[in-house]
Amino acid sequence: MTPPSNSRRSDYPGAVSEDHALIQNYLAQHPRLSAGALSAARHFLKWAASHGIACADLDAAAVDRFARHRCRCGRYSPRPLRDPAYITDVRRFLRYLESSGAVTVPVGVERLDKYLAGFVGRLEAVGYCKSAYAGRLSQARHFAEWILQSRIPAQEITDATIEQFAMHNCRCAIRTKQGRRVAGTGTGDRRRGARRFVDFLRERGVINPSTPPDTPEVDPRLDSFAQWLQRERGTTAETIRRYRQEAGRWIGALGVDPKHYNAAVIRSIVLDQGPERSRSSIRMTVTVLRAILRFTVSQGLCAPFLLHAVPPAIRRKLSTVPRTIPTATIEDIIASCGATTPVEIRDRAILLLLARMALRAGDVWRLRLSDIDWRAGRLRLHGKSRRGTMLPLPQDAGDALLAYIENARPVVSTNRVFLRTQAPFTPLRSSAEIAGIVARILKRGGFSGLPTGAHVFRHSLASGWLRDGADLDQIGIALRHASRETTAIYTKVDVEMLAGVAQPWPGAAS
């Protein structure tokens, strides 16, 4: 017999016995349940009955209503409702009701946790380390639980869904302990784990592979601008990426029609920036804005005089002294870098390439196996220019590089030299990770108070060459500088030499 739709659930004679049966089955499948968890389940069913909510209609929204209700549920006290652990027990009970079929899940909302076994096989095949494996699996389980609670159909999962999951205020039973969020479940961890699981589901056909990832609408002018930079200016792919990212911030402010560009808007893009923007960031805005205007002028779409409307961002190249580290300290840093674990072997090879060859971080990041000429002892570098440059490979740097390739580098198909030491063994994401490796080397060695970044070794080696009597032109060739003025920056680093040639100030002591 089905109760009338307008009657309260508590008036239905079979409701009490039905609830009792649910509790008994719940206890039978989870015999180690605490008395508090059983009380939370009974309390939840009592509240649902008093509000006329059928068991099949219970969901996460009902749990939220239950947590906020002013309890007058007979022998139950309102005090436990303020305990997050109590509500967590209710959510676990709701999960049991969903898995047992007592709660109706809408059509199209699929339980994704049944694919976790296949996902485990994928993680094991890739070779994740223990901690990374546990984190990816835990976040995949969390994502499956959140999708079920949110009642999102599998075919509607997109990159926007992943972002919502990463930013949601977690009340999922599977990801809480005693009602509190488990440590190490930040938005970045959630996003990475969910994306890996979603990619797996797309490969399995659970999520429609033809569904494109959600991408923000891109201004078509940026595509044309990028093609012009590559075709006409020979700009590298990394520079094009940075220019597109910068221009994407403010290109909408210029207006849709280039014929209507005006000097006031152009100046406001540079001058009306927030206080969080650094000087170098503002200089980047000026550089990219001028490039955008040059491109537009070259297409005959705006007036050439608008180039003069861009405010200058003056950077005096000779106003600062290059940051350097003494040669003895660099040798101590190299000696402190061990060679026992794969991470230490890789980091030592990177450090010696920076310290012995004055390479840029980008040179190390882009280095490929095919760029190493072992017979001639040379490296082919692909720096800022479009032509490769061959440089001799010092003995100790070559030994460290060979030790890494033979003993520590994972056997993968990629041609890039330096890879991550944990699965998946992919190349480093950008040259910024080289600077991060240098920072970790200094931290492991206990060095503090030193200039940071990978470029400091390049400055230090060039300054040492100058002190040893090397000619500026020779230093410029070794550093692959296009202009002698760039190399002249190193003439300021030897303070003792400058003091020897300094003339006394008129009317005062030297």
The helix content is: 40-55%
> What is the count of distinct domains?
4
Termini distance?
108 Å
Overall radius of gyration: 32 Å
In one word, what is the shape?
A: elongated
Entry summary:
The protein has 510 residues and is an all-alpha fold. The protein is built from 21 helices and 5 strands. It folds into 4 domains: 9-100; 112-204, no CATH class; 220-315, Orthogonal Bundle (DNA polymerase, domain 1); 327-492, hpI Integrase, Chain A.
Describe the structure.
- The structure is a single chain.
- The chain is mainly alpha-helical and about 500 residues long.
- It folds into 4 domains: about 10-100; about 110-205, no CATH class; about 220-315, DNA polymerase, domain 1 (Orthogonal Bundle); about 325-490, Intergrase catalytic core (hpI Integrase, Chain A), CATH 1.10.443.
- Helices cover about 55% and strands about 5% of the residues.
- The protein has helices at about 15-30, 35-50, 60-70, 85-100, 115-125, 130-150, 160-165, 185-205, 220-230, 235-255, 265-270, 280-300, 325-335, 340-355, 360-365, 395-410, 430-445, 455-465, 470-480, 485, 495-500, and strands at about 175, 180, 370-375, 380, 390.
- The strands form 2 sheets. It has a 3-stranded antiparallel β-sheet with strand order 3-4-5, with no helix packed on it.
- Helix 14 (about 340-355) runs antiparallel to helix 16 and helix 14 crosses helix 18.
- The longest helix is centred in the first third of the chain and has 21 residues, at about 130-150.
- Mean pLDDT is about 85; it is low at about 1-15 and about 175-185.
